[in-house]
Every structure is written in C-alpha cells, then in structure tokens.
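Anyone up for a design puzzle?
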C-alpha cells in the first residue's frame, strides 16, 4: 500500500495508528484475486459478517452482497476497512454473539 492509501484503508484511526498500520501492512500475494478456495466454510456453517460503512477499500455495498450470498448474520459499524482496530468493542460483541450461537451445538456434538 502506498502511504497515500492509508486514509482509504484505515481512515477512522488516529494518525499515529494509521502510520503503524501502514508500516506493518504486508504485501498481498500476487495471485490474491485469482486464488481458488476449496471447502468454503460459509456454505455449510453459520457465518457472521461485519460491514464497515465507511470502508473505502472494499465498497460497503459489495460487502453487503458477500454477506447476503453467505447467508451471514450481518452487522454494520461506522468503520473503515479495519473495524477490529477502530471499533474493537463492537467487533468483540459480534464474536461473542457468534460464539454463543454455535456453542450449544458444539458442546452437544462433543458429548
């Protein structure tokens, strides 16, 4: 990512955090958009999806399309592409909700 792209990727973070994200962001694999994924979990397991309403890396409407196609329980947050950094409390709430939804099933299956 070029330095001027950080506002599109993580525009809702404080400046010092944006610099850290930019400095530590890895290079995407060259075949990122051509890679084939086998055994897609969302086809057979419950899914949750967080749409960043201020995401300028992946358009929120495209995120909504993905979530709908997955049949995911969808949450929308006022966030850039990195809600786990800018809205960690909301993200952990979604994770806890997801875990609570599948835990009874997992616990019964383990018996």
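Challenge accepted. My sequence:
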């Amino acid at each position: 990512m070029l330095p001027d792209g950080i506002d599109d990727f993580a525009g809702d973070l404080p400046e010092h955090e944006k610099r850290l994200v930019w400095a530590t962001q890895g290079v995407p694999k060259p075949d990122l958009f051509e890679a084939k994924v086998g055994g897609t979990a969302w086809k057979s397991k419950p899914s949750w999806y967080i749409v960043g309403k201020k995401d300028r890396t992946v358009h929120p409407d495209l995120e909504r399309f993905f979530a709908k196609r997955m049949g995911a329980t969808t949450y929308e947050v006022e966030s850039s592409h990195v809600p786990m950094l800018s809205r960690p409390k909301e993200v952990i709430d979604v994770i806890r909700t997801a875990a609570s939804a599948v835990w009874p099933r997992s616990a019964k299956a383990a018996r």
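A detail worth pointing out: The two ends are 47 Å apart (CA to CA).
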